[in-house]
Amino acid sequence: MNQPDELSQQVRRGARAVIGLQLAGQIVSIVVLAALYRLVDPSQFGLLGMILPVTLLLRSVGTLGLNIAAVQQRDLTQSQASALFWIQILAGVVLTIVAAALAPALAFFYAAPELLAPALAMSGTALAANLFTQHQAMAEKRLRLGELAVARFTSQLIAGVAAIALAYSELGIWALVAQQYVELLLLTFGVWWIEPWRPDAPGREPTLAPLLHFGGYYTLSGLLFAAAQNLDKVLLALLIGHTEAGQRLIGYYSQAFNQMMKPVYLATVPLASAMLPALAATRDEPTHFRDTAAEFYRFAAIVLAPCSAGLAVVGQNAMVVLGGPEWQTAGLLLSIMALAALAQGLINICGSLLAAVGQAKRLALGALAIGLVLSAGYAIAVVVARQWDGDWAVTLGLAIAYAAATLLIAPGYLAFCFTISDADGKRIAGAMAPAIVAAIVMGVLTWGVQYLLLQYATLPPIVTLGLTILFGAIVYVGVAQGEVRWLLRRMKND
């Protein structure tokens, strides 16, 4: 067996395990959230939603892109890997201090003094998130994707159970904060257990310049992406976060966004973990590189296109089933945001595509363009919504702006990434088209069936949701049967 075929099989085996465990993890996440939605008031989710944008913004620069540089670098020495580890730990300490210092400013900025204590508590996640990143990079470099997926699933499951137990004790937002720490610390233990590599003592490493250069641009792109994806939540917190009613709307908005991103993460987490090492290993073989890139994007479209169309149809009913009638407002926001789920997923995996060919600088430029388009959309939404002088109008306007701006920028951004990486853009578009067409057909027919069920059948929401999803799945598999067969074949061992 030649090296490309052996690599392809190794990636496929790992990706299959990751997908299975990622799917199991999403099911666990939905069950956990269904419990938490009933135990924790939406305003408490809103408080967390006001803190997380800043926390995630800091964490986006926490690794300085050095974990990605470690995977992308073909011949990484022990001394280089050790130096990268200690730099990331130092960065985590610094960002924890910065996050703690920003907590009082957040409480003042949002006119919400109740934000101070949980914001201080969340600051430590900046360090916790950096404790395992270098070990994870070393494991990904060796394509130990399945074992990493086991660690992620286990930590997520235990953290979810802990959060439910604490929420049952009426600890509110503190149950949500504890969930963050339990998951990160258990993941650290799991990744260190899986990956036998250990760092040397801190010391000088004179050959880090190329890695730092790559990591710097990758960090800049991560910062720009994080800023763009969280600007709407910051604006919402600034405009309506000073009241409990506003905090409830922020809770609805942030949880709608999180539910929309679940299928995106379901597809892109295993893809990204497999794409970077696979494409980096084949970047000097243009034909094999283009074949591999086309397969990854085809896979993303097959999985994400029906999720995007389906969530747009069933969003309101899904949130009622998950959290009860009081979460129906979040369902409308979910239906709107879900229209952009496929576009968001394709944008996300472009990071691995450009990183694999060492184009971190161009990735940062692309992230800047996305940020500018989203910012313009949010600004227009706020100006228009303020004419109605209502918190709900602002919330709804930002959801519409997110979906519209993401759909607007995605085609140009994808074309930019394909050109820079020397991937075959026309071939990739052709590979994705059947799944997208099938998803549109599924969405239209499923909307019609759901409308009939809601108008003429008196059924519990969970039954209506189940029947609608079942019908949609049958339609999609029927229309896209060629794509589904291809996916199943690719996931099997040769």
From TrEMBL:
The keyword Protein biosynthesis does not apply. One of its GO terms (cellular component) is plasma membrane. Keywords: Cell membrane, Membrane, Transmembrane, Transmembrane helix. The keyword Plastid does not apply. The chain crosses the membrane at residues 21-40, 46-71, 83-109, 115-133, 145-167, 173-194, 206-228, 264-284, 296-320, 332-356, 363-386, 392-416, 428-453, 459-480. It is a multi-pass membrane protein. It is found in: Cell membrane. InterPro entries: Poly_Biosynth_Transport (IPR050833). Pfam families: Polysacc_synt_3. It comes from the Bacteria. Belongs to the polysaccharide synthase family. This is Lipopolysaccharide biosynthesis protein. It comes from Blastopirellula marina. The lineage of its organism: Bacteria, Pseudomonadati, Planctomycetota, Planctomycetia, Pirellulales.
